[in-house]
Design a protein that fits this description.
Distance between the termini: 163 Å
Subunit structure: Homodimer or homotetramer; both forms have similar enzymatic activities.
Number of helices: 16
Pathway: Lipid metabolism; glycerolipid metabolism
Subcellular location: Endoplasmic reticulum membrane
Keywords: Acyltransferase, Endoplasmic reticulum, Membrane, Transferase, Transmembrane, Transmembrane helix
Main location: endoplasmic reticulum
Order of helices and strands: HHHHHHHHHHHHHHHH
Oligomer: single chain
Radius of gyration: 43 Å
Length: 500
């Protein structure tokens, strides 16, 4: 390169260097400005995020949105299946409705099959013949009317005891004689008069049995009143066994004390009241509700017709078809007939329970303004046999507890012996009400009731909860038709079987 070239290149090179340095300075300046802007934007973003977070924490809607986003990520939690006992779920109303629908449909099929096979068998005139053989002769009704003599006799004895005209021992002797005649007189009459039908005899014996229990309670309570009067007691509590607190409606009634209760009106109120335990002052309702009374009367009439129709149309054909397998001792066919009879028998028993313990007894209670309407408790939830017998018939249970079970305990008997004695008494009356009207003694009802003792022990010892409840239901559904078939078979063989 020559000197001239150096001179030319030199200024150019210096100019390029100056331009590069200026460019470099400009780029550094712009880079510093970019960093400053970026730092400002980062600080502003952080402050904006903090403000947004504080605004979000103060807003519940935003918090729920964030929670919903979290739920989308997790959809499981610790829980049991509904049909598990540990789940605590108890609303099975839909399943209950399903069971009712299935029960109605299955029984409707059986009823339709019965109609197609046997036709219409319901005959209201035949029901009258079950009570009366001769339309001009009413022996069962006349026998029921005679019972008023024993009521008046009990009142007369109590009045004489209250006045002191007779001794306590002699009065108790007359009472027991009166009660013994109440027990034996209708039995002898039914057995000696062929004109009394089995249904009429069962009705009459039922009336006398109720009267026997009522007058026994009447005798006991008045005796307790005399004992309290002798110990300077001025009044008797509402109930010696089941005391109740007085209500506002009770204050309007006149309080009766001994011996002011020894009147014909007081005794006949107790005779017709739906209870077996006597009190001087029963809880009373302020008025008669006509709507309630008419509903109960309508139920009584409707359910009575339904019971008669089901017995004639459903039970009688099954029982008649069961006679041949029983005579031939065909076990498989006997079991089949038993299962066929179990459903209609149990359905009729349930309808009878509602007709008697709800409709009829509430009708009488409303008519007499009787206040204690606890005629039954939740026996359908029974997990033991003893719970069932204590809750399905409250009037009888109260009488047994007050006048039989507790006196035995006070005399030194053990609980087990007292319970066995109560079952024995119940078994006696079951057999009394069945065998005497049928005029044959087979002890099927007696043995069926006494069999409740080992069954009660087994269920209470080895079964609990739903299993115990199922065992109680099985004993009701299967046990009753067995006794029915036994009695009907024996009655058929004794009175209608062909003899060579």
């Amino acid at each position: 390169m020559t000197m001239g070239d150096r001179e030319i290149v030199g200024p150019i090179t210096r100019q390029r260097r100056a331009t590069f340095s200026m460019t470099r300075r400009g780029s550094l300046k712009s880079l510093n400005e970019f960093k400053g802007l970026n730092a400002k934007s980062v600080g502003k973003g952080k402050s904006d995020r903090k403000a947004q977070e504080s605004q979000t924490n103060g807003n519940p809607n935003e918090k729920s949105k964030r929670k919903s986003h979290g739920d989308k990520l997790s959809c499981h939690k610790l829980q049991e299946s509904l049909l598990s006992s540990s789940s605590g779920f108890s609303n099975y109303r839909g399943i209950l409705n399903w069971c009712v629908v299935m029960l109605v449909l299955s029984n409707a099929r059986l009823f339709l099959e019965n109609l197609l096979k046997y036709g219409i068998l319901v005959d209201p005139i035949q029901i009258v013949s079950l009570f009366l053989k001769d339309p001009n002769s009413w022996p069962a009704a006349c026998l029921a009317l005679v019972s008023h003599v024993f009521v008046i006799m009990a009142l007369y004895v109590e009045r004489q005891l209250a006045k002191g005209s007779i001794s306590e021992q002699f009065g108790m002797f007359i009472h027991f004689l009166n009660l013994s005649i109440i027990l034996c007189f209708p039995m002898a009459t039914v057995l000696c008069l062929p004109s009394i039908t089995p249904v009429g005899g069962a009705f009459t014996l039922g009336v006398y049995t109720i009267l026997l229990l009522k007058l026994y309670s009447y005798k006991d309570v008045n005796k307790w009143c005399r004992e309290r009067r002798q110990t300077k007691a001025r009044s008797l509590s509402r109930s010696l066994s089941c005391p109740s607190t007085p209500t506002a409606s009770d204050s309007t009634e006149t309080h009766v004390s001994y011996p002011g209760n020894l009147s014909l009106r007081d005794l006949y109120y107790f005779v017709f009241a739906p209870t077996l335990c006597y009190e001087l002052n029963f809880p009373r309702c302020p008025r008669i509700r006509m709507g309630f009374l008419l509903r109960r009367m309508f139920e009584m009439l409707l359910l009575a017709q339904l019971l008669v129709g089901l017995i004639q149309q459903w039970m009688v054909p099954v029982i008649q078809s069961s006679m041949k397998p029983l005579q031939e001792m065909d076990f498989s066919r006997m079991v089949e007939r038993l299962l066929r009879l179990a459903i209609p028998n149990h359905l009729i028993w349930l309808i009878f329970f509602y007709w008697f313990f709800h409709s009829s007894m509430n009708f009488m209670a409303e008519l007499l303004k009787f206040g204690d309407r606890e005629f039954y408790r939740d026996w359908w939830n029974s997990e033991t046999v003893t719970y069932f017998w204590q809750n399905w018939n409250i009037p009888v249970h109260k009488w047994c507890l007050r006048h039989f079970y507790k006196p035995l305990l006070r005399r030194g008997a053990s609980k087990w012996a007292s319970q066995s004695a109560v079952f024995f008494l119940s078994a006696f009356f079951h057999e009394y009400l069945v065998s005497v009207p049928l005029r044959m003694f087979r002890l099927w009802a007696f043995m069926g009731m006494m069999a409740q003792l080992p069954l009660a022990f087994f269920v209470s010892r080895y079964l609990r909860g739903n299993y115990g409840n199922a065992a109680v239901w099985m004993s009701l559904i299967i046990g009753q038709p067995i006794a029915v078939l036994m009695y009907v078979h024996d009655y058929y063989v004794l009175h209608h079987a062909e003899r060579p």
